[in-house]
From TrEMBL:
Mediates both low-affinity uptake and efflux of sugar across the membrane. This is Bidirectional sugar transporter SWEET. It is a multi-pass membrane protein. GO terms for molecular function: sugar transmembrane transporter activity. GO terms for biological process: protein homooligomerization. It comes from Brassica campestris (Field mustard).
Amino acid sequence: MAEASFYIGVVGNVISVLVFLSPVETFWKIVKRKSTEEYKSLPYICTLLGSSLWTYYGIVTPGEYLVSTVNGFGALVEIIYVSLFVLYAPRHLKLHTIVVVSMLNVLFPIAAIEATRSAFKDEKTRSQSMGFICAGLNIIMYGSPLSAMKTVVTTKSVKYMPFWLSFFLFLNGAIWAVYASLQHDVFLLVPNGVGFVFGTMQLILYGIYRNAKPVGSRKGSSDIVADEENSLTSRVPLLT
């Protein structure tokens, strides 16, 4: 079982790395244009928060080094993304972005880690408390995939829910759910099990609406960017 979980975890690491790198094209556009335009920083800030906490969870939980390695890589990548947002954000949004980053990516992780270390002296209890926090945050973030699915049903168009993102949500959730089952880790199993279910639902919607005639009027640039962010943030919850 231990050997099987290791190989499955390695496959999960590879898939998660690909998902972490999926926004590279977006940030290449931002760098070339020297502006974040109407793209939102919150998905990347939240992903950095989740990756940081899951990295710590993997470190303090025996046998979960595969969780810490992939999320450690993800945290480094997200730091680059968030830094580019701060660098190229419009002047009126720069201070707001810095404040949100300071709260969610600096103060909150420090507070969560210190709280678990101070409240619980037993390593197992400390690990479980951090796992509860991580799983809870991931479940909260599931509003993004739900929003993407609502957009598809409303517009009868899959334009803003790319197939490959939906596929990797499905595949990554499945792989990590199997890994969590073999490791008997409920904190990994619950969010990734839900990610697998949502990925399945998105693939079903894609099959239903991929050839459907879109409805509604043309969207403005801000609506399009918002929908692109909805599809992009479907990756947030599954990187555990």
